[in-house]
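for the writeup, i need someone to sanity check this before i put it in the appendix. the sequnce is what the collaborator sent (i think, or maybe the updated version? ugh). structure was predicted straight from it, no edits. if anything looks off just tell me and ill rerun, i have time this weekend
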Amino acid sequence: MINYNNKVFVPLSNSENGEVDPGMQFVYQQAGNIVTSSYAGGRIRSGHLIALVDEHGNLDMRYHQVNDKGEITTGICKSTPEQLPNGKIRMHEKWQWTSGDRSEGESLLEEL
């Protein structure tokens, strides 16, 4: 199992319908198989995520956030880790809004 505790991830790319901006940082905290993070920046005023990590480091995540329009938005995300040659982790994410239009998207995050 990958230990995500205190790892910092930044977005490299996001689908057009996403709200995560390149300037944001996600600092993960992990206790057992539970990963959490609070985040803000860009179009997100405040957000939180919670995930379960499996033995391969995959994250099954739920998130909720307040955007710059004052709306609460929610979603689900499946994140698959890729170990890079420099030892850092790149996360391949497939997500779907559970609020609003319920559209789907993809994001790419990389460990700092």
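Residues 12 and 108 are 5 Å apart (CA to CA). The two ends are 19 Å apart (CA to CA).
thx in advance!!
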